[in-house]
Amino acid sequence: MHPLLSHPGRLAGYLALAAGFGGLIAVLIEALAPGDFLSALAFALPVTLVYAFQCLSVWYPVRRLSAAREETRAPTLVVALTLAALLSSALWCAIGWLWARALVDFGRPPELLSRVGAVLPLMAVFGLLLFALAALAHLVLAAFERSREAERRALELQVLAREAELRSLKAQLDPHFLFNSLNSVAALIGTDPQAARRMCYLMAGFFRKSLGLARRDAIPLAEEIYLAETFLAIEEVRFGDRLRPAFEVEESTLALAVPPLVLQPLVENAVHHGVAHLVEGGEVRVRARRVGELLELTVENPCDPERPGSRGAGVGLANVRARIEALHGHRARVVVEPGAERHRVVLLLPAQAAVE
User: Fold this and answer.
1) Considering its fold, how many domains does the chain have in total?
2) According to DSSP H, which parts of the chain are helical?
3) Which of 60, 211, 316, 343 has its CB 3.0 to 4.6 Å from that of 303, i.e. a possible disulfide?
4) Which pTM does this prediction carry?
5) Can you tell me whether residue 350 is helix, strand or coil?
6) Same domain flag for 82 and 201
7) Helices 111-189 and 315-328 sit at what angle, rounded to 10 degrees?
């Protein structure tokens, strides 16, 4: 359907403009062949409105030919539009002559035929100019439509690529955690079977809770904190008193939205690349607070000063950084603050309420 026909308001404006051209034709008739102005107006207005709809038909060949190959588009358009302009102008003049005769039959003065005949050549030229203007306007409209369609397709491809990337990143989380956890269970089976059994129960609860997260883009921070606490409880079975979890979470942040399992890889890194390499162990501290329009999440752990290369190692940090960039772009970031004895990772996310 023509874009104007699907918008009544735009169509009304277009017909009002055409009626204005009809008034100009009536003035032209009165100037070239003076007589009854009402008869000239009764002739000019209907035929101009008819021609307005004729000019709308140029949309269909313009749209079709605009989709043709670049090397054939311009010559084909010129030929097609020239023939269409000549045909439309001739048809318009024929309709005008028939309408003038009908007006005379309906009681208008007979001299109306001679007056119309005097302006028919100018009407033909006027019709060619109007058709050329309509063709130009439709060419611009077709180019705009092609540009908008290309932009829409580019956005669709961008969204599809983002969704595929997020699915791939999410798929890495559970196997990565499961691999490390099974290694921990294997290490405990021979030395402490009861601790290994307890770890298996905690792992079952963790995976049961996280099973439905793959279908959600965001969860409340309260759920994410629960998962981080469960993970650290799993690791406490292995490390005992060497691992000391600490959580400092502002109550106002618990309802804010975060990506599922965004803290777990960072907490896992804090344990396996920090506490695990210290004989005395240490404290893994998780903080959450609101800073203006941002949610600030911090994971801090002690580290071995003799092993600086391991502090940011592993899949977890790279995974989190990629997910944050894919979801929020420049509105969020991951800041790594390595220190001599403490290692800190800060996540800055838009402070948005989670949607149930």
Assistant:
1) 2
2) 8-32, 37-56, 59-66, 70-105, 111-189, 193-210, 221-239, 264-272, 315-328
3) 343
4) 0.52
5) strand
6) no
7) 160
